[in-house]
Design brief:
Rossmann fold, six-stranded mixed beta sheet, 20 strands, SOS response, DNA damage, ATPase_AAA_core, ATP hydrolysis activity
Length: 468
């Protein structure tokens, strides 16, 4: 669970910081840069599996496309000035993970702070595109005694906090950065034995990837747990074409971020539960919350001749419809219903504008479903309460009005002083006054008067409900 994110120098995130709970809704007009928060989270996740340059190429470019030029990730882009970006992520990591060889590993402590600093090296010789350089990387524990002040969202200390936060750490950080005699960064991994463990140092200047991405075994369980946590941060981009596709029997039975393998995933969940009909009935009942969707039952058809799984919906009149006949909005809702039933899906899920393709009458059902996907912080996480975290962004007044006020953050592009002294438009997320993120004047909280466009009928509206 990502509890705090700090970013400086990435796109329009300058001195940016935000505290996060189980569910967060970021609202803002187009062009403020609210999607850049998702980009930063995605970038940190990609860096756990890919090289620095490969991760940079996967992240959305300045025009919404992938350009492959790492300069697109920096606030000052293609200028000739120095390029540096810094990240910090405070997180609750799993209490037990598996290494790449299937061996179990338990971290020394489950509350951690990860810090990363990257620079840019211009192209040389025949190179046409520069590269990212690793300037600093640190991983250290957060004292469990600081948890009440760190986790300020409403939760049960007895059932939730005590269940996810445990362990202790004595000695140095798990990953630290020092400088050699020439001023070059040296990054060291420290064993979980604390000061008794021998550090494993490596020069960072030519490192092709982060240190966290290189930890694959149970020899460094806490670093591995941090890696596994960041690997679980995903950005959902559900595509109707992927959701409509049938699955072969040999396909993976885990839905990917586009929604591909929906049918095989639902089949796996149903039979792992032990009562397939009960699972199908729960998904069908949730789908029936959508106005205009006539559903009596839902199931996964097994075509043993062609060896295909297909999601099929049966209407009240008996008409059977395959998934390819459903609308894009209905399919996206169905995909989230399946995720809700899957106890193996944990970690952070980012969703852009979940209301897209949804009829206004069904926005309430979509918001409730997105909220229900997040872990209930008043109970201990487990199979019936998966440790999932949800962040959505939106510009819809209907969504803002339906989300619980403490879960709202409002995106604004304010003028900030950049490292070179110039004034730049940078993203800031502002909570509602009186909510748990409101720290007084420092938080620059908004009031209902500040967000009237989300709460009132827009000027010029010609079709409204007359109230007598």
């Amino acid at each position: 669970m990502l509890t705090r994110l700090e970013v400086d120098g990435f796109k329009n995130l300058l001195n940016f910081e935000v505290d996060l709970g189980p569910f967060t809704c970021i609202a803002g007009v187009n062009g403020t840069g609210k999607s850049n928060v998702f980009d930063a989270i995605q970038f940190l996740s990609l860096l756990t599996d890919r090289s620095l340059i490969e991760a940079a190429q996967e992240v959305r470019g300045v025009h919404g496309e992938r350009f492959g030029d790492p300069r697109d990730l920096f606030w000052n882009g293609h200028s000739g000035a120095a390029h540096t970006m810094r990240f910090a992520a405070e997180m609750i990591v799993p209490g037990e993970v598996e290494d790449d060889f299937g061996r179990p590993a338990a971290p020394s402590i489950t509350f951690l702070r990860y810090e990363l600093e990257l620079g840019y090296v211009p192209p040389r010789g025949i190179e046409k595109i520069g590269r990212l350089s690793l300037l600093a990387e640190n991983l250290r524990h957060i004292k469990l005694g600081d948890a009440p002040s760190k986790l300020r969202f409403k939760h049960s200390s007895a059932h939730f906090r005590n269940a996810v936060l445990h362990g202790r750490r004595a000695g140095v950080a798990f990953i630290s950065t020092t400088k050699d005699a020439g001023g070059e960064p040296i990054i060291s991994i420290h064993q979980d034995g604390g000061s008794r463990g021998q550090p494993k140092p490596a020069a960072a200047s030519r490192a092709p990837a982060t240190v966290v991405s290189t930890v694959t075994s149970s020899d460094d369980p806490t670093v591995l747990a941090a890696r596994r946590e960041m690997q679980s941060w995903r950005r959902l981009a559900l595509e109707p074409s992927a959701l409509r596709a049938a699955d072969r029997y040999v396909d993976p039975r885990q839905m990917d971020p586009t929604g591909r393998h929906l049918a095989s995933t639902l089949f796996r969940i149903a039979y792992e539960d032990g009562d397939p009909e009960r699972v199908y009935a729960r998904v069908a009942g949730r789908l029936a919350d959508l106005s205009g969707v006539d559903v009596r039952e839902l199931q996964v058809e097994q075509d043993d001749v062609r060896e295909l799984f297909t999601v099929q919906l049966v209407e009240s009149g008996g008409l059977a419809l395959p998934a390819r006949s459903l609308s894009g909005g209905t399919l996206r809702f169905l995909a989230l219903c399946v995720l809700l039933e899957d106890p193996t899906v944990e970690g952070l899920l980012c969703m852009e504008e979940p209301e897209n393709g949804i009829h206004p009458a069904n926005v309430n059902a979509m918001v409730q479903l997105a909220t229900d996907l997040a872990v209930d912080a008043h109970d201990a996480p487990g199979p019936a309460n998966p440790f999932r975290q949800i962040i959505v962004n939106t510009h819809s007044p209907a969504v803002v009005q339906l989300v619980d006020p403490p879960d709202l953050l409002f995106a604004e592009a304010d003028m900030r002083r950049a490292p070179d002294g110039t004034m730049r438009r940078a993203l800031q997320l502002r909570p509602l006054a009186g909510s748990w993120r409101d720290e007084g004047p420092r938080s620059r909280a908004v009031t209902k008067a500040d967000i009237l466009p989300y709460l009132t009928t827009p000027p010029g509206a010609q079709t409204t409900l007359d109230i007598i």
